[in-house]
Amino acid sequence: MTPLIKLENICYQYPAATEPAIRDINLSLGQGRTGIIGPNGGGKTTLFHLIVGLLKPTEGRLLFQGREVSCKKDLYQLRKEVGFLFQNSDDQLFSPTVLEDVAFGPLNLGAGPEEAREVAQNTLEGLGLYGFEERITHRLSGGEKKLVALATILAMKPKILLLDEPTNNLDPRTQDRLVEILNGLAQSQLIISHDLDFLDSVTEELYTVEEGRINLCPAGHIHEHRHIHQAGNQPHRHEKSPLPNG
Ligand SMILES: Nc1ncnc2c1ncn2[C@@H]1O[C@H](COP(=O)(O)OP(=O)(O)OP(=O)(O)O)[C@@H](O)[C@H]1O
């Protein structure tokens, strides 16, 4: 089956940099839920920006539904299907009220005002955000902003979600809610997080992105990461069903 998105030998070097940030990445996306971990500066966010076409690869090809993304029209088609949750919700929310923010995407995709309002309301309700419609976006708490930001992308009904550190600044209760929400979504998801417990509770496979390279994380390595990040916790779920070596 043709993957929704495919990265073929993708490399990227920032214009002023002396070293590439991404080195020869091959990856197929569009099924299941995948976690990405890696050290600061390893290239995770750069990889996301390449997947949504915010950055153009220096080498390699980005394919959407089997076709190379090469012009603005291709990019538009790709972005329609990819919901990108930014690390900082303030980069995502810009309308005065929650309803306007969540309705913005559907309106932009061609829905009429009534339809956009209905989609926005249903999406907010689906996330348990009852009575949020007229709340002032910039006055929401960090956790509320994160869920509303998620609503803005879900309202556009993307096929795949890219979530960059979605648990940043969430209290344990809101994080549990997010886990429940993500596990209940039909969309494929690619999630960057430093929190292995969180990734363990929502993803089926794990990759590391380090020095610009991506590798599937075999069970033993997951155990190592767990020791480094969270000494003393229970064994990782993936250890029960070892993954092939990446
Ligand atoms: N706009 C930029 N110009 C030049 N170099 C950049 C730019 N943005 C990122 N970099 C560099 O590219 C490399 C990868 O950065 P990136 O932000 O993708 O890492 P990351 O894995 O997301 O890190 P973190 O976990 O800290 O968010 C780093 O060395 C970083 O300094």
Describe this structure in words.
Belongs to the ABC transporter superfamily. This is Probable ABC transporter, ATP-binding protein. By secondary structure, the chain is an alpha/beta fold. The chain has one domain: Rossmann fold, CATH 3.40.50.300. It is 35% helix and 22% strand. It is built from eight helices and ten strands. It has helices at 44-51, 72-81, 98-108, 113-126, 142-154, 172-184, 196-202, 219-229, and strands spanning 5-12, 22-29, 33-37, 59-64, 67-68, 82-85, 160-164, 188-192, 205-210, 213-216. A six-stranded mixed sheet has the order 6-7-8-3-9-10, with helices on both faces. A four-stranded antiparallel sheet has the order 2-1-4-5, covered by helices on one side. The longest helix has 14 residues, at 113-126. It is globular, with a radius of gyration of 18 Å. Residues 230-246 have low confidence and may be disordered. Adenosine-5'-triphosphate binds at residues 14, 16-17, 21, 38, 40-46.
Task: Give a short summary of the structure.
The protein has about 250 residues and is α/β, with parallel strands linked by helices. It has helices spanning about 45-50, 70-80, 100-110, 115-125, 140-155, 170-185, 195-200, 220-230, and strands at about 5-10, 20-30, 35, 60-65, 65-70, 80-85, 160-165, 190, 205-210, 215. Strand 4 (about 60-65) and strand 5 (about 65-70) form a beta hairpin.
Topology:
Blueprint: E1 5-12, E2 22-29, E3 33-37, H1 44-51, E4 59-64, E5 67-68, H2 72-81, E6 82-85, H3 98-108, H4 113-126, H5 142-154, E7 160-164, H6 172-184, E8 188-192, H7 196-202, E9 205-210, E10 213-216, H8 219-229
Parallel strand pairs: 3-8, 3-9, 6-7, 7-8
Antiparallel strand pairs: 1-2, 1-4, 4-5, 9-10
Helix pairs in contact: 3-4, 3-5
Bound molecules: adenosine-5'-triphosphate (ATP).
GO molecular function: ATP binding; ATP hydrolysis activity; ATPase-coupled transmembrane transporter activity
Keywords: ATP-binding, Nucleotide-binding, Transport
Domain ABC transporter: 5-236
